[in-house]
Amino acid sequence: MKAADVRQKSDDELTEQLIDLRKEAFNLRFQRASGQLENTGRVREVRRDIARIKTILNQRVAAS
Question: Residue 61: in which H helix or E strand, if any?
Answer without folding.
Answer: helix 41-63
